[in-house]
């Protein structure tokens, strides 16, 4: 499709239309045009055309940036870029000058575009970029054109950011040296020149906010470039010119600029420069402490003074955070003696820590208006960049060397705060909140566990005297921030609270689920959920079903009621608590009925517009665990669950709620596995949908569909071989196993076919199965595929004997079995992991060498010995290397995203079946089988063993023979 500048301009104008029809049509046309190799260049030329309306050019600049993002880099499949080298060269020739001569909004888009190109091409494929930027920087500097200066610096800043994040390598240091050689000196020149212009304007009294703002913005960007270029190590140029940099840095921390600081927009700019300076100081403290030492005292004093003088307004937050971080870095360095003076730590508590920990009006606003953000900062540990948390981190840093002094000072402050609250609770409730926050935030988590400890207070005494009265307060809506703090304390120190006291307070936790505050009822749910995870010595759960049975009805009622509060309709903390309670409680039919009704009601509602993937996951986990726990107790409930859930599942499938398809298939698989033959007729309708090739087109559905297909193979083996269904199942296997992204799922299908169907049913298909596997083996063999292939061969052998394995493989190609054995089975056997997989492959391999005529033949002596060596290697590996422990349910927040992808339902999973239940120990099976073989030929096999096993494996085998009293010789 071709275009003209006019038609292209019209397309971009239509993308701005408020009406959806022209907007969508224009977007579709642009997407089609983008496939033309010269499209990007045409869009850039449109951006450069001053005659075109500014709005259209800006839309084109955004489109150009997105076009480069998706097409500039080589495609992973082919390694080629959709944009030709010729067009790339033309774009790179135009973009710098165009960016510098554009309006600010277009300039920012082109700067990002330039950075995207630089990410892939700079410096090796774009050596002219940096000289061009430096040349333009010097020209702009001579004319004091700070619009261009800041555009150039912003672009350089974006390009140099990679030095902060990439791992050290020779290539990285080559690129860094190139940038330093070309840009370090010009950077210092513009930084000092801008500093002199600021000083001149301020001292002469001629400064205005309009003249100062671009100058401060320039200094801010220079400081960020300084950070990038110094991040890996201290460059020689910066070491030689450290005094010039540090002199200017100190000036911005100690000077006042009232013309800017008296204005909201100007204050932010000055604070941004100071914050950037503090980050540079922290970097030097961490990485160049020795070289920085002579400047340390002056900067520590300057930062301290700055913090003490800064107001508690949220406008100063970023500056306060970076400044406190710098002091924290100093406190943990060899220069910590700066904090050793009399009264210093107490002064830090009073002038820095307490003011920054105390609640402010904007904290209360976030608490009331955006509970998700408040919890993210406060409860989930992602608040390291809030003033409250970072102030406590400073105390922790100082405590690393002055623990007793910090403990004494903080304890005194907490007592003062609690005393103030006691004197006038209504007026001074924030003092109590501050005291509780200090105790919680200064607690230390013990390595490798959930237990926390503190020396600040006696936890049980503090809990009884300070927290319990708050929790037992009958007004659940009064002073909600204090209630939230008390619930958080209970949650954090849950392991230290005696069980009798915790159970005594359980009704109060249930009450707080009814609190109007979203934070409070979320914290109450989180506290209950975390309590149910507590384990005592020996790994036993501290709280059992018997403990929560007395509260069960009120607890579930309040949890489902909480989901009806405004803004909590998709509250993930509430739903996670529901899931945890259902996992612990005794699930009778009286409990199961209301719970499945409540869950399906919520499910039907979120189907209309799924927004919170974490909530959604816990919702489906709750359904799955309810089904599992209830049906463990009463299998007759399966039909009741089917009646409740099938309408919701049909809603998901009919309305194409793609996010929920994998969940729906997993629930269907769970219900199918619980059924007893004959299964209801509706399942065979589902089976028809399952066998449709269209169902398998979305990769995100594949694992869940495989679970469902496995359930059908287990439960309806007789129906599989009717109406051509087995051919369709094997067609699905063939499709899955041919692609590296789904090959493992293909083996799951194939293994279930082998386990579930008689050999007489599958014999006719074996040549096609082997052909599919051998084709994939030739095209692309990965370690994952080889392990799956070996497990499949082992399963086939133990189910249908070694002769069937050898004969069916050789029917594809004569003697291919020996080739597969030599090239793949023997060398890869030691890679197998997992208890059942190790057992299966070890037993199958043992059967092969002890029962198969192919391996017992004298011509196969070499293969026999090598196979035995691999078996012994596999069984001699340390247990932790080969056994994959079943983990506790993972924290789903780490794995769920807004994209449509497969997420495993932990509670819907079927326990892995052991195909060799009659064999307890593969090591014993090996030596017993070898002993029987050696008894038939007492000279031959010991000799083969001594000739083919390495000394370590010989010793290991002898040890096994001794352990099980099965002598081979």
TrEMBL record:
PROSITE patterns: IMPORTIN_B_NT
Residues annotated as signal peptide: none
Annotated keywords: Cytoplasm, Nucleus, Protein transport, Transport
One of the protein's GO biological processes: protein import into nucleus
Residue ranges constituting the Importin N-terminal domain according to the UniProt record: 26-101
Pfam families in alphabetical order: CAS_CSE1, Cse1, IBN_N
GO cellular component terms given for this protein: cytosol; nuclear envelope
GO MF term set: nuclear export signal receptor activity; small GTPase binding
Keyword match Transport: yes
Localization per Swiss-Prot or TrEMBL: Cytoplasm; Nucleus
InterPro entries in the cross-refs: ARM-like (IPR011989), ARM-type_fold (IPR016024), Importin-beta_N (IPR001494), XPO2_C (IPR005043), XPO2_central (IPR013713)
Superkingdom of the organism of origin: Eukaryota
Similarity field: Belongs to the XPO2/CSE1 family.
The protein, known as: Importin N-terminal domain-containing protein
């Amino acid at each position: 499709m071709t275009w003209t500048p006019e038609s292209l301009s019209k397309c971009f104008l239509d993308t701005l239309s408020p009406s959806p029809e022209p907007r969508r049509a224009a977007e579709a046309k642009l997407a089609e045009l983008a496939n033309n190799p010269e499209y990007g260049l045409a869009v850039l030329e449109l951006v450069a055309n001053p005659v075109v309306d500014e709005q259209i050019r800006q839309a084109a600049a955004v489109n150009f940036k997105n076009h480069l993002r998706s097409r500039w880099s080589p495609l992973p499949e082919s390694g080629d870029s959709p944009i030709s080298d010729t067009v790339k060269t033309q774009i790179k020739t135009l973009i710098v000058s165009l960016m510098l001569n554009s309006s600010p909004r277009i300039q920012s888009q082109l700067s990002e575009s330039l950075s995207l190109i630089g990410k892939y091409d700079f410096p090796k494929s774009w050596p002219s970029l940096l000289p061009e930027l430096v040349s333009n920087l010097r020209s702009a500097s001579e004319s004091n054109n700070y619009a261009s200066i800041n555009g150039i610096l912003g672009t350089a800043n974006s390009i140099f950011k990679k030095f902060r994040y990439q791992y050290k390598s020779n290539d990285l240091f080559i690129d860094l040296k190139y940038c330093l050689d070309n840009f370090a000196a010009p950077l210092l020149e513009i930084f000092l020149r801008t500093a002199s212009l600021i000083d001149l304007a301020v001292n002469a009294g001629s400064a205005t906010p309009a003249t100062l703002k671009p100058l401060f913005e320039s200094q801010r960007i220079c400081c960020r470039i300084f950070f990038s270029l110094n991040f890996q190590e201290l460059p020689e140029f910066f070491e030689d010119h450290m005094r010039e940099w540090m002199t200017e840095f100190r000036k911005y921390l100690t000077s006042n600029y009232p013309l800017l600081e008296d204005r909201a927009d100007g204050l932010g700019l000055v604070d941004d420069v100071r914050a950037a300076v503090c980050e540079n100081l922290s970097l030097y403290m961490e990485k160049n402490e020795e070289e920085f030492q002579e400047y340390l005292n002056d900067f520590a004093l300057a930062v301290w003074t700055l913090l003490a003088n800064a107001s508690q307004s949220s406008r100063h937050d970023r500056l306060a955070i970076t400044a406190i971080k710098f002091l924290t870095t100093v406190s943990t360095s060899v220069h910590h003696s700066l904090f050793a003076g009399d009264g210093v730590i107490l002064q830090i508590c009073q002038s820095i820590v307490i003011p920054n920990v105390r609640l402010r009006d904007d904290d209360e606003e976030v608490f009331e208006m955006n509970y998700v953000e408040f919890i993210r900062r406060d409860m989930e540990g992602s608040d390291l960049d809030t003033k409250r948390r970072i102030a406590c981190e400073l105390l922790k840093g100082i405590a690393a060397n002055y623990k007793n002094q910090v403990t004494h000072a903080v304890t005194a402050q907490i007592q003062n705060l609690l005393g103030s609250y006691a004197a006038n609770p209504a007026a001074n409730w924030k003092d109590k909140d501050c005291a509780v926050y200090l105790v919680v935030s200064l607690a230390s988590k013990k390595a490798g566990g959930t237990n926390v400890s503190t020396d600040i207070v006696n936890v049980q005494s503090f809990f009884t005297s300070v927290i319990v009265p708050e929790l037992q307060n009958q007004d659940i809506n009064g002073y909600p921030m204090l209630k939230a703090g008390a619930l958080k304390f209970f949650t954090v120190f849950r392991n230290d609270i005696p069980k009798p006291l915790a159970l005594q307070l359980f009704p109060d936790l249930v009450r707080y689920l009814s609190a109007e505050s979203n934070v409070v009822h979320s914290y109450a749910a989180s506290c209950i959920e975390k309590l149910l995870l507590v384990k005592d010595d020996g790994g036993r759960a501290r709280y059992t079903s018997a403990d929560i049975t007395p509260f069960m009805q009120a607890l579930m009622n309040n949890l489902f009621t909480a989901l009806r509060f405004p803004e909590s309709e998709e509250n993930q903390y509430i739903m996670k608590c529901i899931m945890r309670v259902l996992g612990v409680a005794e699930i009778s039919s009286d409990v199961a009925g209301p719970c499945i009704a409540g869950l399906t009601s919520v499910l039907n509602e979120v189907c209309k517009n799924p927004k919170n993937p974490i909530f959604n996951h816990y919702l489906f986990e709750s359904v799955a665990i309810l089904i599992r726990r209830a049906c463990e107790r009463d299998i007759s409930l399966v039909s009741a669950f089917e009646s409740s859930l099938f309408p919701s599942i049909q809603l998901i499938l009919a309305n194409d709620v793609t996010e929920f398809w994998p969940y729906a298939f997993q629930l269907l698989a769970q219900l199918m596995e619980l059924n007893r033959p004959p299964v209801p007729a509706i399942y065979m309708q589902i089976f028809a949908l399952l066998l449709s090739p269209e169902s398998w087109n979305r990769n995100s559905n594949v694992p869940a569909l495989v679970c469902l297909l496995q359930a059908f193979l287990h439960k309806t083996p007789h129906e599989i071989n009717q109406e051509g269904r087995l051919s369709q199942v094997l067609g699905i296997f063939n499709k899955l196993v041919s692609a590296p992204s789904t090959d493992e799922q293909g083996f799951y299908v194939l293994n279930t076919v082998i386990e579930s169907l008689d050999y007489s049913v599958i014999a006719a298909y074996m040549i096609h199965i082997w052909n599919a596997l051998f084709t994939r083996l030739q095209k692309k063999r990965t370690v994952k595929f080889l392990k799956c292939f070996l497990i499949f061969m082992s399963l086939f052998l133990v189910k249908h004997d070694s002769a069937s394995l050898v004969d069916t493989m050789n029917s594809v190609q004569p003697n291919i079995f020996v080739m597969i054995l030599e090239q793949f089975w023997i060398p890869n056997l030691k890679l197998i992991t997992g208890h059942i997989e190790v057992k299966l492959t070890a037993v199958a391999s043992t059967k092969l060498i002890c029962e198969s005529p192919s391996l017992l033949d004298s011509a196969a002596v070499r293969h026999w010995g090598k196979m035995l060596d691999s078996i012994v290697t596999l069984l001699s590996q340390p247990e932790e290397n080969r056994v994959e422990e079943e983990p506790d349910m993972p924290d789903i927040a780490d794995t769920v995203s807004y994209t449509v992808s497969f997420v495993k339902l932990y509670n819907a999973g079927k326990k892995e079946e052991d195909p060799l239940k009659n064999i307890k120990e593969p090591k014993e099976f090996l030596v017993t089988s070898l002993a029987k073989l050696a008894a038939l030929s007492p000279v031959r096999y010991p000799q083969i063993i001594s000739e083919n096993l390495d000394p370590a494996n010989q010793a290991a085998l002898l040890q096994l023979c001794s352990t099980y009293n099965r002598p081979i010789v």
